[in-house]
Fold this protein.
Amino acid sequence: MRYNQFFAELTAAGCYVLRHGANHDIWYSPKTGNKFALSRHGKQEVPTGMERKARKVLLGE
């Protein structure tokens, strides 16, 4: 999955960006109350481990 697709999925789930860093965005999930840093690489693929960890932390999967 590409970063842009993943960001759209997170947004649809109710997550939002708390702040923009130099290379990463800090995402917040009101559902779980957790924050997670995700890098911004647009059209590149999200590494599988990072996607899995973000889903676990932000979406509670």
